[in-house]
Design goal:
The protein is an all-alpha fold and about 55 residues long. The chain has a domain of about 25 residues. Helix content is about 60%, strand content about 0%. About 0% of the residues are buried. InterPro entries: CCB4. One of its GO terms (biological process) is cytochrome b6f complex assembly.
């Protein structure tokens, strides 16, 4: 017998990406900006300098 378990369907992901191409293309910019803000907030909350002194 073959595998009779659930087969994952990813067609809806493909359909969503194809129908929302502009949002998908701009997503990395938003994710990068959000992560930068998150790091700065984390450093501020931890009382760590926002930049590392290389001297």
């Amino acid at each position: 017998g073959g595998y009779r378990g659930p087969v994952p369907k990813k067609d809806w992901i493909v359909e969503w990406v194809l129908s929302n191409g502009d949002a998908v293309r701009s997503l990395p910019i938003y994710v990068g900006g959000f992560s930068l803000v998150a790091v700065l907030l984390n450093r501020t909350a931890s009382l760590v300098a926002p930049v590392i002194d290389a001297s």
